Structures are given as structure tokens and as C-alpha cells.
Amino acid sequence: TTLDKVLFRELAMLRVVDREQASLITGRRNVSVSTCNAWLLKLCRVGLLKRFFIATELGGLKALYSLTAKSAALVSSPLRPLQRSNDSVMISDPFVQHQLAVNAVILQLKCSESPIPDVRFRRWMSFPQSISPAVPLTPDAYIEFAFKETLHPVFCEVDRGTETQTVWKKKIALYIRLAIGGDFPRVFGQERFRVIVVAESERRLAQIRKTVASQTEKIFWFSTLKNINQKGFFASHWLRPAAEASQAFL
Q1: DSSP letter (8 states) at residue 132
Q2: DSSP string of 150-173?
Q3: What is the pLDDT of residues 191-240, one digit of tens each?
Q4: Residues 6+ positions from 46 with CB-CB distance below 8 Å
Q5: pLDDT for 113
Q6: How far is CA 143 from the centre of its chain?
Q7: Phi and psi for 141 in degrees, rounded to 5?
Q8: Which residues contact 71 (CB under 8 A, 6 or more apart)?
Q9: pLDDT tens profile 77-107
Q10: What are φ and ψ of residue 221, in 5° steps?
Q11: Angle, helices 2-14/94-110, rounded to nearest 10 degrees
Q12: Could you give all domains of the chain from N- to C-terminal order, each with its CATH number?
């Protein structure tokens, strides 16, 4: 169906989704869990989705879905297969868990209804390699949305607590170089950008904010994935490197 193809096209970029993300992509947020599960299972049985499972924190299993060669061909999308066996069960998978978190941020902007009129999602991209030879930086995602007549470019960094503060210092310095040099306008055709840092806990967020504040008080915005999922992307939960008061993104 048309909605199935919408899912396949998004999966070509997102790589892997869970049921909630698949429902959000196809506008099925208000459809029952059993109906969504039946729909996804049908796509798996006809070879249009690959399904595997990952353990949850509560001891259960969550089904995850990725493209197959058949579904990629159906929408003329390149296939970047995940090397996971059909119906395999993983206790932990850092890549998959990180990608699901990145997806959650992107889909909040692209597929969730914005409470702010005149906000339009424009595009997003991922980076198989660094932005440019002069700036060896590989963001988790680059997103553009427009508010009225102004375009807002945003780099996304999702932190799951695996990178040291030394790594973060290097990353911050590269973003500053990108902001003051000529590579960003040359590559993206825009003049300014923001960097959103999304962490899994307030404690981790505070650590990264402190590291960023030692180098700059500009361009960086901070929140948690929980806040974005529960309150929406644009709500007043964002922090800047030094200021303690939360603020809205627009």
C-alpha cells in the first residue's frame, strides 16, 4: 500500500524502527497495538520487513524492524542492511539503541503535530562520513525546519553515556570551527546552525553542559530524550551551556 511505501522510504534512512516509530511514520498513532503488530507481522511474512528482538529494561522483548532487499527495491532506495538475523534476540545492541534514540528526535520534528503554527519540516540527512576534510565531524543527524520565513538548520548529537568528556571536547571544538569557518555555508548553503545535544539523563546532560560551557556559550542546546518525547520538541525544556532557566526552542 501507499503507507507501506512511506514506511520503506523512511526506513532506508532511519535503518531500524520499533512499532511506535513505524506507527508514527505512517500516521497510525491512534491505531491499536494489536492492529499495528498484525500489520507489521504481515509485512515480515511476505519478505518486506526483517524483524528481530532486543531485551528491554523491564525484562521483556521489543520487536524491531528493518528493510529487506525486496522492500528497498520496491521504493528504489539503497539497501544498507543491518547484519542481524531474522527473529534473532539480542540482550544489548549499542548501535541499534543509539539509532532508535536518533530516530525518536527526528520523528518528533517530522511526524508529530507541532503546537506552533507555521513550522514546517524541510529535510534531514545522516552522515556516512565526515562533513568535510577540514572538519572531521560526523553528526548523528542534520535537520532543517522552517518557521514562517526563517530556515533553522540543526545538528543532532544523541549521547548514551559512552563517550568520554575528552571526546566531547574535541567534538565541541570541531563544531566551533564549523561555525566560524566557511565549510558550513559551502556544504549546506546556510549561514548559521544550532547543535542539539540529547542525553538519557539529567546528570549526564549536566556533565556535557559543563564541558561545552568551558569552550562556548553559543550554538549548543541541551535536553533529554524523555523531555522531547513527553513534552514535544519545541516545549520549554531546553537548556543553554551556562543559563539555568529552561526555554523553548523557538
Answers
A1: B
A2: EEEEEEEEEE-S-S-HHHHHHHHH
A3: 999 999 999 999 999 999 999 999 999 999 999 999 999 999 999 999 99
A4: none
A5: 84
A6: 9
A7: -165, 160
A8: 8, 11, 43, 47, 48, 49
A9: 988 888 899 999 999 899 999 999 999 999 9
A10: -130, 145
A11: 130
A12: 2-92 (1.10.10.10), 98-231 (3.40.1350)
pLDDT, the chain, mean: 94
Q: What is the DSSP string of 178-209?
A: HHHSSHHHHHHS-S--EEEEEESSHHHHHHHH
Contact 63, 40 (CB under 8 A): yes
> Are 16 and 126 a contacting pair, CB within 8 Å?
no
Residues 6+ apart with CB under 8 A from 170: none
Note whether 208 and 197 are within 8 A (CB): yes
- Looking at the chain, the number of H-run helices and the number of E-run strands are 9, 9
pLDDT value for 57? 84
Radius of gyration of the chain (CA): 19
pLDDT at residue 81, as a whole number: 84
Close Cβ partners of 80 (under 8 Å, ≥ 6 residues apart): 12, 15
Kindly state the cell numbers that stand for 39: 500489520
Amino acid at 243: A
Distance CA 63, CA 246 (A): 35
CA angle, residues 65, 71, 32, in degrees to nearest 5: 45
DSSP-derived pairing of the beta strands 17-18 and 61-67: antiparallel
What pLDDT sits at residue 147? 94
Strand blocks (E) in the chain: 17-18, 49-55, 61-67, 89-90, 119-125, 141-147, 150-159, 194-199, 220-224
